[in-house]
Amino acid sequence: MDRNNPVLYLVLPCYNESETIGHSAVKVKEKLIALKESGKISPFSKALFVDDGSKDDTLAKLHALSSKDDLFAVVALASNRGHQNAIMAGMMVAREYADAVVTIDVDLQQDIDALDEFIEKYKAGNDVVYGIRKDRKSDGFLKKITASGYYGFMHMLGADIMTNHADYRLLSKRALDMLSEYDETNLFLRGLIPTMGFTSDVVYFDVREREFGKSKYTAKKMVHLALDGITSMSIRPLEIISVIGFVIFLISIAIGIFTLIEYFKGNNIPGYTTSIFVSLLMGGVTLVSLGVIGEYLGKIYMETKHRPRYMIDSVVIRETGKEEKEK
Questions:
Q1: Strands, E, within 138-206: which ranges?
Q2: Quick one: which of 16, 73, 112, 325 could link to 48 by a disulfide (CB 3.0–4.6 Å)?
């Protein structure tokens, strides 16, 4: 592993990004060439696009790019497996060739010019470098509120995640080799990578406006990722359920004692409103509790199947000065 002149692979996951590919490829090429010419990275460094089972002509455009320029490499997944699995697939392929890998969204809203600082931190001896957005000015009001609430909730649950860190990060080959040992199906890389314990640092970057196309990260996908993060990194929700159950049990005993005392005193307590309230409360708590337990059981069920996280359909990497490799 050469820290002074590392082979850097930029991993860019793609899903139905036909409108974005051409523009992003130009920006990526300009940046990598500049880094190579300045001697910051090896001439063998590349941009590795990962097609996550796109249904448009994204893959065709990626193959066209790679056939014309050996700076671009392509990994094609056999089906859509989600953003986290696409990133993982790209990193696992890249670790066979690279000294370090940086993952970044293909729309390049995460400032690609921050790569210089990532590389400096890597050369300083860090195996993991996290990209942290400086602010959330580009987000809408609802996104700001939900994001802040989510990170606060995750920290409350004891999850070791970086606030305002998405999936813009650098991993050394050593960190990638360790990450490959994690075989869990439900991936949440933002929480998983800090658990490895490697020397790390952060880089702060600006978030830019998306220039082409629309984000494919829908609200449904964001909710799914949030649930994966909670259930993958903490069992505290189950502990909270236990505490709530114990508290309700104590309250029930207190109400029971109070009712008996009033009964023996001869007081007539209608209790209709109280009965309805308690019934609704207990029903709601029970359903929520079953839902939380069901989430964990579902994750356990998927883990026990030991299904592969992704299936790679093809890999095209044209090594500089060598014949094209295709798997």
A1: 165-172, 200-205
A2: 73
* 6 close to 119: Cβ distance less than 8 angstroms: yes
pLDDT digits (tens, 9 = 90+) for 198-240: 999 999 988 877 655 565 555 565 666 666 666 666 667 777 7
Mean pLDDT confidence for 129-157: 68
For residue 79, give the nearest of 105, 54, 106 by alpha carbon. Answer: 54
Return the closest-CA partner of residue 80 out of 15, 11, 18, 20: 15
Residue whose tokens read 């830019």: 208
Q: State which fold the 8-215+308-326 domain adopts.
A: Spore Coat Polysaccharide Biosynthesis Protein SpsA; Chain A (3.90.550)
Residue 104: CB atoms within 10 Å = 28
> Tokens in use for 93?
């392929």
Residue 41 confidence (pLDDT) above 70: yes
**Confidence (pTM):** 0.73
Q: Are strands 200-205 and 72-77 parallel, antiparallel or unpaired?
A: unpaired
Residue among 212, 239, 179 nearest 25 (CA):
212
- Asked whether residue 325 carries a pLDDT value surpassing 50, the answer given is no
Separation CA 324–CA 316 (nearest Å): 7
Q: Which two tokens stand for residue 249?
A: 């049990």
Q: Is 103 exposed, middle or buried (0-12, 13-18, 19+ CB in 10 A)?
A: buried
How far apart are the C-alpha atoms of 120 and 8, rounded to whole Å? Answer: 13
- Where are the chain's structural domains? 8-215+308-326, 236-305
Which token pair is 58? 């994204």
Type of residue found at 151:
Y
pLDDT at 167: 85
**What is the spatial distance between Cα 75 and Cα 62, in angstroms, rounded to a whole number?**
9
The pLDDT of residue 322 is 46
Q: What is the full DSSP assignment across 277-302?
A: HHHHHHHHHHHHHHHHHHHHHHHHHH
Examine the pLDDT at 72 and tell me if it is beyond 80. yes
